[in-house]
Amino acid sequence: MKFAKLAVAAVALAATPALANDQVVTGVTVTGPEGNAVGTIVSVENGTAVLDTGKHQVPLAVSMYGVGEAGPTITVTKAQLDGMIDAQLAEAAAKRDAALVVDAAVVDAANAPLGTVLEIDGDNIVVARGGDEANKVTLLREYFSATDTGLMARLTNAQIDAAMAQAAPAADATGE
């Protein structure tokens, strides 16, 4: 299951606002406009409830839930919600893939320079760190996103360094 961090269209999910919807609690089943289950709330924190549809985990503001006789409601069905998230994820993947080209500049998750794309081999993306072809790192395609300013790795330089440091002793032990 993917945790959808993309915003779902607020207009499509607008619910009758309640001052305090005490029905929105962890473990409760949320129903849609036809009374069918949409999913289960798996967490509630800082005004956001994460709704697990079985396919996606969707963060929605507590204010987006309506009050129903059997518990909280939203104004879309499970199929509609999953379809919206699928469409948003597909659009994000298409943008990422369009931006993911050899020689593209890459920043890390903290928006610091990471390097340039040196090679694309299926889902393996080789990045020359700092533009230095001798200092390469391979990341999976899923760790990249397209932003308004270009290509971003969803890891920081520090996270990459830590992962490489952990991998080095294992490679040394196997003689590779």
Structure commentary:
This protein is an alpha+beta fold. The chain folds into two domains: 2-93, PRC-barrel domain (SH3 type barrels, Roll); 100-174, PRC-barrel domain (SH3 type barrels). The protein is built from three helices and 13 strands, in the order βαββββββαββββββα. It has helices at 10-13, 78-99, 157-174; strands at 2-3, 29-31, 37-45, 48-52, 56-61, 66-67, 72-73, 105-107, 113-121, 124-129, 136-140, 144-147, 150-153. A six-stranded mixed β-sheet has the order 11-10-9-8-13-12. The protein has a five-stranded mixed β-sheet with strand order 1-5-4-3-2, covered by helices on one side. It has a two-stranded antiparallel sheet with strand order 6-7. The chain is elongated, with a radius of gyration of 21 Å. 21% of the residues are buried.
